[in-house]
Specification:
The protein has 241 residues and is of the alpha+beta class. It has six helices and 13 strands. Strands 1-3-2-6-5-4 form a six-stranded mixed β-barrel. A hairpin with a 3-residue loop joins strand 4 and strand 5. The chain is flat, with a radius of gyration of 43 Å.
Length: 241
């Protein structure tokens, strides 16, 4: 996909110039060349925003119309949004030679539903959503499709497993995992204080052990040894004498 973007060269830089441009409906930008340094330009943020919102996004090949400087084929290098208004604030472009291969990151899109999801209750976990490839600027793909329909639980797809294409080649680490099918972990929900109290109340109470043995023995001994009978009165008087 190619797009066209108009630009004008600007001589001044700085925050004041950036504010003036934004007030006039433009944003500051810089275009970098293969051999030359950065050239300060200004562009309309609306068509650029539409370009960035397409499937290719920053990988869209753009024809930059610069009065007095001719047309240039560029790609978006960096861009910045306002964190509050989400309006485009700044952009950097770099020139590309149409006959020289470049490296770009392309999105990986899974196609189909894994058997491990339908039959085994697994989930498809995407580890890396992009892969770096090398190709000519005109051959940048919108995305790379990966067929996942035959994947079972425990199986994975790595960079070396994706289909090759004569127009591009993957340059990311061949062992880098892109996606796999896993069994979801069941997280234990910690018990709330109320639930813990309810569980404690539902548990059977232990029988109370009453220690009566010693007291009962003492009582039996007391019953077995009655107090001695008092001596006859006459005998007590004789002993006093």
């Amino acid at each position: 996909m190619e797009a066209v973007l108009d630009a004008v060269e600007r001589e001044q830089r700085g925050k004041n110039e950036a504010r003036r441009l934004r007030a006039a409906g433009k944003i500051p930008a810089v275009v970098y060349g293969v051999r030359e340094g950065g050239k300060a330009i200004a562009v309309d943020p609306k068509p650029l925003t539409r370009i960035l919102q397409t499937e290719l996004g920053a990988n869209t090949l753009i024809t930059l119309n610069l009065p007095g400087g001719g047309d240039a084929r560029v790609l978006v290098k960096e861009y910045q949004y306002d964190p509050v208004t989400h309006q485009l604030l700044h952009a950097d472009f770099y020139r590309v030679a149409m006959d020289k291969a470049i490296r770009v990151n392309v999105s990986v899109v899974p196609r189909g539903e894994p058997k491990g999801v339908k039959q085994q209750g697994g989930v498809l976990d995407i580890v890396h959503r992009q892969v770096e490839i090398e190709c000519l600027p005109i051959d940048i793909p919108n995305h790379i499709e990966v067929d996942v329909s035959e994947m079972m639980v425990g199986q994975s797809i790595r960079v070396r497993d994706i289909a090759t294409d004569p127009k591009w080649k993957a340059v990311s680490d061949a062992d880098m995992m892109l996606l796999h099918v896993i069994i979801p972990k069941v997280e234990e929900v910690p018990a709330t204080p109320e639930a813990a109290a309810a569980a404690a109340g539902a548990a059977p109470a232990e029988p109370e052990v009453i220690k009566k043995g010693k007291k009962e023995e003492e009582g039996e001994e007391g019953a077995a040894a009655p107090a001695a009978a008092p001596a006859p009165a006459g005998k007590r008087e004789k002993e006093k004498k």
